[in-house]
Design goal:
Layout lengths: L4 E8 L2 E7 L6 E5 L10 H5 L3 E10 L5 E10 L17 E4 L2 E4 L6 H18 L1 E2 L4 E2 L3 E10 L4 E4 L13 H11 L3 E17 L2 E16 L3 H14 L16 H6 L8 H4 L9 H14 L4
Antiparallel strand pairs: 1-2, 3-5, 4-5, 6-7, 8-9, 10-11, 10-13, 12-13
Helix pairs in contact: 2-7
Amino acid sequence: MDGPSTKPYEYEPGKFIDITRDCWQYQQTYECGGKDPLTPSCQPLIDQGCQRINTACEVYDSLGQCDIYVYDYSCELSPPTTRTTTQCVSPVAYCQDASCMDTSSQPNTEFRNSVGAVMALRDAAANFNDATNEIFTGTDMYCMNFWLWGLGVNNPCCRNTNGFLYNCSQAEKTLEQERNAKHAHHVSTWCDTQRCVLQILGACIGPYCEFEKHSFCVFGSVLGKLVNVQAREQLGISWGDPRAPDCRGLTPEELQSADLSLMDFTEFTSTFALPPGDETATINTLLDRITQGYGL
């Protein structure tokens, strides 16, 4: 009688929750008849609690009197049941069997990292140098912090200030830009010139570093840096002399030997504003970036 629909259920005074059912009320119709309108043939239906909903005459005699009556009864197939439900407060949850389940997506870091590995392979094909047989080749670059203790001069060209570098070389300013773009890997720091505040009888009193130098390997992309650095760690490839680092690229054989699934590409994938755990949006956005030449 009452088919598929959603109805509000008041689980607390003034508080409702929608419940959907295929059927809310069943009806089964029986017919019984007889000469006597009070024939006992319908008594079993009455005993079941069925309600008479209609009376009709099936057969009339020659005098126009009803000879056979037909009674329609409506009966419940099963007694009414009540089910307790739980209202889920969180908008990212749903209720099942009186319990709340969180349906919010958690960031799928493994998927995002796998996307980074796939993009790294694509980038590798575009960054292969036929002349050197290398992939993701870097360039060694340097910067220097200068202190002159007696005059209080402080010229930090390696502070990664993300701003204007005063009295620094053009190469140091370029290195600053590469570091801000996350293309640079810091290799080493050393004191190039050490001074003394005082020197008495050959003894250095108050030693300090006047020229502090830093060496970096700078790559053409974030992915290039991540793959080169982590492949070196896996394969035990040295950077050579820290003061003159070997920023060579990887050979195809070395890249094939490296396990990209163990590499962390968060520094690359985190640059994109993506919905957490939305894998479709992640891969589509990254593919768009690759196509447009961004973020490589």
